[in-house]
Write a structure and sequence with these properties.
Alpha-Beta Plaits; 41% helix; 4-stranded antiparallel β-sheet
Length: 106
């Protein structure tokens, strides 16, 4: 198993609009294709205007296959276009995490 760990940084005052768009238009598409959403979080202490979300996959090939299917869905560009209109995203970091042998999530 691997975890796709994403951190998105937003321009101040625009994160709430992006989250609303994501919940309405992006998340439903992702849930159809990406599988197990481990969590979606907003920062409360530390760097502000960030969301962190994590998706679990069997391996990199599983992730690539699922993401390709999602990106081919005609509803995905709708979410992307609305996100671009909002102009909220400042930076994005993606990490692939692998659990240790003693991790409770494997």
């Amino acid at each position: 198993m691997i975890v796709d760990h994403r951190t998105y940084d937003f321009h101040p005052g625009k994160m709430a609009a992006w989250i609303e768009n994501y919940e309405r238009h992006g998340l439903p598409v992702q849930k159809r294709y990406l599988g197990q959403l481990i969590g979606f979080f907003v920062t409360d202490i530390g760097p502000l205007n960030q969301v962190v979300f994590m998706w679990a996959y069997a391996d990199l090939a599983d992730r690539d296959r699922r993401r390709a299917a999602m990106e081919a869905d005609p509803e995905w560009p709708v979410f992307l276009a609305k996100s671009k209109e909002i102009g909220a995203l400042k930076a994005q970091t993606t990490k692939i995490l692998k659990p240790t042998g003693f991790s409770p999530l494997r």
